[in-house]
Amino acid sequence: MTSPITSRRSFLGLAAASTLGAFGLAACGTSGPAQPGGAASATGGGGGGGTATMWGLTGKPGESIRESTVEAFNKLGKGTIEVTSFQNDPYKAKIRTAVGAGQAPTLIFGWGGGILKSYADAGQVDDLTSWIGETSGFKDKFLPSTWGAATFDKKIYAVPIQTTQPILMYYNKTLFEKAGAQLPATWDDVMNLVGVFNGQKVAPFSLGGQSKWTSMMWLEYLLDRVGGPEVFDAIFAKKADAWSDPAVIEACTKTQDLVKANGFIKGFSSIAADTNADQALLYTGKAAMMLHGSWVYGSMKSDNPNFVANSLEIGNFPSVSGGKGDPANIVGNPANYFSISAKASDTEKEVAKAYFTDGLFTDTEVQAWIDAGQVPVASSASSKLSGSADAKFLQLVFDLVSKAPNFQQSWDQALSPAQAEALLNNIDKLFLLESSPEQFASAMNATIGK
Amino acid sequence: MTTAVTSVPARTGGTRVKGRNNYLGGLFGWIWLAIIIVPIYYIVVTSLKDQGAYFTSNPLSLPIPPTMTAYQQVIEADIGLYFLNSVIVTVGTVIPVVLFGFIASYAIVRGNSRFLRFSRGMFLFGLAIPLQATIIPIYLIITRIHMYDTLGALVLPSIAFGVPLTVLILSTFLRDVPAELFESMRMDGCTEWQMAWRLAFPLTRPAIVTVSIYTGLNVWNGFLFPLILTQSPDKRVMPLALWAFQGEYSVNIPAVLAAVVLATVPILVLYVVGRRQLLSGLTAGFGK
Amino acid sequence: MAAITPVTQAVETTVGPTPGAAAPGAKTRLDILVLPALAFFIAFAFIPMIGVLLLSFTDWDGISPITFAGWESWAQVFTDPGTYHALWLTIALMIITWAVQTPISLLLGVFVAGHQRYRAALAVLYFLPLLLSSAAVAIAFKSLLDPNFGLAAGLHLPFLAQDWLGNPTLAQATVVFVIAWQFIPFHTLIYQGGVRQIPASMYEAAQIDGAGRVRQFFSITVPQLKYTIITSSTLMLVGALTYFDLIFVLTQGGPGDATRILALDMYITGFQANQMGAASVIALILVVFGLALTYGIQRLGGRDLSASQMEGM
Predict the structure, then answer these.
(1) Nearest chain C Cα to B168, which residue?
(2) pTM assigned to the model
(3) For residues A253 and A222, is the Cβ–Cβ distance under 8 A?
(4) Are residues A160 and A194 in the same domain?
(5) Contacts A434 to C, Cβ<8 Å
(6) What is the ipTM of this complex?
(7) Is the CB of C57 inside 8 Å of chain B's CB atoms?
(8) What is the pLDDT of residues A213-263, one digit of tens each?
(9) Dist CA B91 CA C277 (whole Å)
(10) Domains of chain A: total
(11) N or C terminus: fewer CB in 10 A for chain B?
(12) Per-residue pLDDT reduced to its tens digit, B240-288
């Protein structure tokens, strides 16, 4: 075997080349979020300066609507926005590492509440109060109830976007007719239906339990119905032992009763909502009912328009007899929000603000949301609802939201990240029947103040 | 070493040991084969169906006719880019690991200074460090040197973690090179450097193949570093891309599995082409 | 030309100069050769180790500036029952995967080392799972095992349509199965190599003495494979500390915390609950564990490595 005569020079050359290669990758990879020139840029002539970046979620219809509004904005000549979309669950982790790395996008997508507050406390997002005050007519563009989740200490840190998303009950009408059953109005009706549907070999409720926040929706409603919004208010206010309120225990017990009665589809704890598998169970007739956000209407409409047109019924969460909560209360996401990253350059921030004033909630966008079966949080929306193909659904959502005495924000968004993570974990255990309501309460009490 | 080829393990009814055939062993072997093959068969077959057919048909049935819709969807979703990223990161890691590891091993075996002994100790210590445990500080370091969300961010720590085992295996191999060979070369006036490349390097070739393959496979399939250290879709490597596909295509299972197939085909090709090399390399380094 | 020596040997023997080692003048030059490797290692492996230690004394949340917090994070981690649960899970997983993989790999290795042609063909197929990345394997099994849309449901076999990934105990069993599925091929390969080196003469002698196949297996094959077993076991156990990729994609640590091994616990605490300080403490536990394990195994099996295995010839 002949050995290659590798001189020191050629070795060094090779080593240098490969290490340089490694750093070269760094160079070709340093196009961080703030890099100009991308596929989405426009013909904008002269004037409009820099480029801002925007992150959002994948999924229908939001992703495409967002992309169209950005495209339209880019043509205005006030700047260019580059949008990147991520899936829900990974997004929540990604945005955090990005913010921590100082590489957050200019426009940060979120749900307000505890996480936004943690950004604000860490000085990672801009205080928009004065800008909003100075920009006439801006605040009125949005539904008034949506500012709450973005305001802390009277300072506003984000702008409401997209749609209002109450959690609703979805029913497969065909399966109900087959079973000769009525839609449930009370919790007792629900428990009865469980028996009925199991007898028909159909799962009563579909549930994407692996995602955990889906299970959380059940507890949110039950707690509100049983004890009224004051119970969670106490928790949010960090009162000691707030989780031990009897209403909490009762809500947990009812939840476990439902699980024990086989109320949820088999295998629910390994079904992830991100893959829309839970929705598929409803429209393929494997489950009769589902508790989910209003956004899945649009997604189901595009995956299975036939089902949505002919077989879908919607309703509010049933009441609980003897419960203190108003049956008209709702739970969910009042809106989504865009914040401006404090670390963005001034040019980027200008572009972002221009987007707020000129790109957000144009008539085209509002109409697009309505056409997709969602209620945008724009004030201009209410007059447009009746003209839509989904008028019935949209009007129902709009009425629910505007008439609700209380709109409770999703707990995992309202609380701090550490509390939220513990909450989701403990709810998971509750649904798996691994912990009792009392154990749940004491585990959660331990997180107060984190 | 020469005896290795002719040995016959007791359990088989081989040419040497006459007797009945080992039916039990054979049965066991076939059962295991089924366990291996069924999932793989399921993956391939499903990737050739379209979503509607998948929901309604028997999962193990062959699609008639097979469709490439799933593959089309996946290819349109930029899978080529992710593949390229994986190649860049893998090659960018393996080459430095092998080169730096080799010269380090050579030095450790041939030299005897305190510094070299210290280095060796460090590498041994490094073997026991689980990669996952260091992820948070690495995230910190990478962001501070402004390399977050780059492919380089993946290469640098991968080199660091590939070095210990490489040095270990290569130095073990090198130690068995008879001293006389080095002596005679030194008599001829060769420098250490020349001896390293002319003598030691060719001799360690099987071990080099081993460490290249082992490191390469680990980097190619690495998931955690890309998960934490990159964020843009255009910096994704294959395992991360698969994970993203799984979500994007949701219940479009044929598409998800088509992505899995496409992700594996390149390695499969390498396997078919270089199997002997691969297997002998792997065994040489790890076998007794 | 070079003899093939066990990986473990390197750990035990001290570095001594081979006779006729480099001339003194070359010492500095040799020292330099080790620098690039050392530099990378220190920068991206060793310093992060120190970093983990330092971070464990903070309560960093990932986005605010880093502040000193004394033993707070330590207290949090050590008073959290979740930590002990994760530790226990990790140990159990290690032992169970070892107990499942080692006999199967050993037997398969022996089987495949046989000289029948069909066995070589089988060996080619056996290796396939290793070609897939852990993420790919997890994704494929996830859809395969879906109780509503997966293999069992499609085949209408209710027994197979269990809630594999949703029921805590089943999920644990499934994780063990998938890990074994992917990694047995690797260890089979190692054992195959080991078996191929056992001299035929030993078996011949045994056969002459009247020993049956089973007897030969236990008296010859297994003892001769001692170092192979150690190598394979070391790789298996140390690797088991960090089956992160596979479990992350397969179950995310769930259902509940049924599969939340230490590495996952660390990730979730750090990157989902945003408690980097606590996560660093968990990381340290991982490191200490890894160190103890590696050195422990070496101690256990490393005695007298240079003893000839050819005794009795």
Answers:
(1) C10
(2) 0.79
(3) no
(4) no
(5) 168, 256
(6) 0.78
(7) no
(8) 999 999 999 999 999 999 998 998 888 999 999 999 999 999 999 999 999
(9) 34
(10) 2
(11) N
(12) 888 877 766 666 778 888 888 888 887 788 777 776 666 665 555 554 3
